[in-house]
TrEMBL record, chain A:
ABC transporter domain: residues covered: 9-245
Name recorded for this polypeptide: ATP-binding cassette domain-containing protein
A Pfam family per the record: ABC_tran
Keyword Cell membrane: no
Domain of life: Bacteria
PANTHER family given in the database record: PROTEIN TRIGALACTOSYLDIACYLGLYCEROL 3, CHLOROPLASTIC (PTHR43023:SF3)
UniProtKB/TrEMBL annotation, chain B:
Location of the STAS domain: 12-136
Keyword Oxidoreductase belongs to the record: no
Family, per entry: Belongs to the MlaE permease family.
Protein name per its UniProtKB record: MlaE family lipid ABC transporter permease subunit
Naturally occurring in which organism (per UniProt): Desulfatitalea alkaliphila
GO cellular component terms, A-Z: ATP-binding cassette (ABC) transporter complex
Keywords tagged on the record: Membrane, Transmembrane, Transmembrane helix
């Protein structure tokens, strides 16, 4: 963490519902500029719902969310568009446009939001793709790539405009350990170089312990946050038994997976 | 304040550029243009770039340097970077700035020549023909299997599909047919009235609808509504690996997905056709009674005289065949989907186009058979 402790995302008393079901309530989060925040919790606890609300894809039932001082929940289209320019999102499945090549996918935001000449856009696309180790795949369609490659291409697209804030939904899920480690290193490098704020939804212990500065843990039965803070400390000394159990059970599970019949 | 720069010209033709402040995507394009303009105007012998007053530098900054160096190299002007600050140096090192390959523009997509593409298209055509034939075979086998083992039919699915294909399509089929009956009666009455033969309007509407237009119109509506839906649904299942899941769980995708759809269409389309015939005759009757002073009884009497049971059955038999074709080609296009979501759209379009083509083709074949009967 460098000099400033400016809050870049503020979630205040967020309440989220699907129909009659309350998914989240009384959620308050302050994300500081330049920090890597991991959002963790069991399946169905509302992690993706929280993300969707934070980027304005879903309207909250109650509460407010501000991105860099811009309230994205008040329905003002113009300020919402301004907030969107500050963020990049990596969706769980990549969400690459299937009718475009990888290069066209990455070039799309560059063409739309900068005045760079076409050859400069081409060079930049190459640099972006090289940074996720996809050099040489520029003209492939997403359907011609493996799952890990799609995720890396999607990461390159979300980084196209070097956004101030990056939302990553399960960035390493389904990837092999080598590529996962590379993506983790890339995330840390981007954070270090550009002080990009990152909100990562994850189940990966590596990300929780090695990459994240802070974690927020959601719980299904509490319908909200049950713990936030330094992951190692939470694991050791959280007053909440559910939190300790979560961290420890995850550790147990990863041990159990080595069991051989 | 975003980025800017300061410029100093030395005596020996050296231009020293000092970049100042933030260089990010907001101003990179403008800065690049300005620098290229300066270089063009001053025609330097050498250019040095100093990054010591840069406060933010990312790959957009790199791009500016790349492009500027590229621009100078073309004019054979040496380019030199003054020792950059550590953070910038780290970024430069990581992207191997000194490697001239790094700033090369995006290579163009490799395009095969005409002969290669023609060959590839031929092979693809052959493969898709192969697929069409094997899919036809697998549908026929699955149908035979269902006849021998009726318990293997997914009855629940079939009933839901019957509702979607038939019941849900009834309002639109009824309305189109009614209007078609009105139009036919109206246009033909204007001609027949000149010969005092308005009474034959009833026969014309009945015969044209029951043997030709009823089956065709209904089939076209079903191709547009359900054929495309089958293709889109199965195509989406294809790209989300659901078909592979079915296959690996030991189900036959044809039996599971295609047979209920084809059966539902074969049962419901003839019923829709029957409704279509009735609504068109009603439409014709409205015009005849209101504009040509025919009574309802005369109209019905004339209609019944014109129609034979054979005529009705012939029309319904055609609609069974059309139904099988529409549903089959809809499923086929769905199973043929490879790649991404845009392919699903193509499959839906192709299902409708191929469906209508097959309807017209088979209707012509039926007409030929009828003429040699």
């Amino acid at each position: 963490m460098e000099n400033n402790d400016r809050t870049i995302i503020e979630v205040r008393d967020l309440e989220a519902r699907y129909g009659e079901t309350t998914i989240l309530k009384d959620v308050n989060i302050d994300v500081r500029a330049g920090e890597i925040l991991a959002v963790i919790g069991g399946s169905g606890c509302g992690k993706t719902t929280l993300l969707k609300h934070m980027v304005g894809l879903s309207r909250p039932y109650g509460g407010h969310i501000t991105i860099d001082g811009i309230d994205i929940t008040n329905g003002d289209e113009k300020s919402f568009a301004r907030a969107l320019r500050k963020i990049g999102i990596l969706f769980q499945g990549g969400a690459l446009f299937s009718s475009m090549t990888i290069a066209e996918n990455v070039a799309l935001p560059l063409r739309a939001f900068t005045d760079l000449p076409p050859d400069a856009v081409g060079t930049l696309v190459r640099m972006k793709l090289c940074s996720v180790d996809l050099g040489g795949y520029e003209h492939h369609l997403p359907s011609e790539l493996s799952g890990g490659m799609i995720k890396r291409a999607a990461l390159a697209r979300s980084l196209a405009l070097n956004p101030e804030i990056l939302f990553l939904d399960e960035p390493t899920a389904g990837l092999d350990p080598v590529i996962s480690a590379e993506i983790e290193a890339l995330i840390m490098r981007i954070n270090h170089q550009f002080r990009t704020t990152m909100i990562i939804i994850t189940h990966s212990l590596d990300i929780i312990y090695e990459v994240a500065h802070r974690v927020v843990m959601l719980d299904k039965s509490a319908k909200g946050i049950i713990a936030q803070g330094d992951p190692k400390e939470l694991r050791r000394s959280s007053p909440n038994a559910v939190v300790r159990q979560f961290f420890n059970r995850q550790a147990n599970l990863s041990k159990r997976s080595t069991w051989q019949p | 304040m975003s980025e800017s720069y300061a410029l100093k010209t030395g005596d020996n033709g050296t231009v020293a550029i000092q970049l100042i402040g933030r260089i990010d995507h907001h101003g990179a394009a403008r800065l690049l243009k300005q620098l290229q303009g300066e270089v063009k105007q001053r025609e330097p012998k050498q250019v040095t770039v100093d990054l010591n007053r840069v406060t933010f530098f990312d790959d957009f900054g790199l791009l500016v340097l790349f492009q500027l160096r590229d621009h100078l190299n073309k004019q054979e002007v040496p380019f030199r970077l003054v020792q950059p600050p550590p953070k910038v140096a780290e970024i430069l090192a990581r992207t191997s700035f000194d490697d001239p390959d790094m700033c090369s523009p995006l290579p163009h997509a490799h395009r095969d020549n005409t002969v290669v593409r023609l060959g590839a298209a031929t092979i693809q055509f052959y493969n898709s023909l192969n697929f069409v034939i094997s899919f036809l075979g697998s549908v026929i086998l699955a149908m035979l299997h269902v006849i021998r083992h009726p318990r293997d039919l997914r009855v629940g699915d079939t009933i839901v599909l019957m509702q979607k294909v038939g019941v849900d399509a009834l309002p639109i089929v009824a309305m189109i047919s009614f209007l078609l009956g009105l139009i036919m009666a109206f246009v033909s009455s204007m001609q027949l009235e000149q010969f005092g033969a308005s009474i034959f309007v009833a026969r014309l509407v009945a015969l044209a609808m029951v043997s030709e237009l009823g089956p065709i119109m209904t089939a076209i509506v079903v191709a547009g509504r359900s054929g495309s839906a089958f293709a889109a649904e199965i195509g989406t299942m294809r790209i989300s690996d659901e078909i592979d899941a079915l296959f690996t769980m030991g189900f036959s995708p044809t039996l599971f997905l295609a047979v209920p759809r084809i059966l539902a269409a074969m049962i419901m389309v003839p019923l829709l056709t029957l409704f279509s015939d009735i609504f068109a005759i009603a439409g014709g009757m409205v015009i005849s009674v209101s504009m040509m002073n025919l009574t309802v009884a005369t109209y019905i009497d004339q209609t019944l005289k014109a129609l034979t049971l054979f005529e009705l059955m012939w029309g319904l038999m055609k609609s069974v065949v059309f139904a099988a074709l529409i549903a089959w080609v809809g499923c086929l296009r769905g199973f043929q989907v490879r790649g991404g979501s845009s392919e699903v759209g193509n499959a839906a379009t192709s299902a409708v186009v191929s469906g209508i083509f097959l309807i017209i083709l088979f209707d012509s074949i039926f007409a030929v058979i009828r003429s040699y009967w």
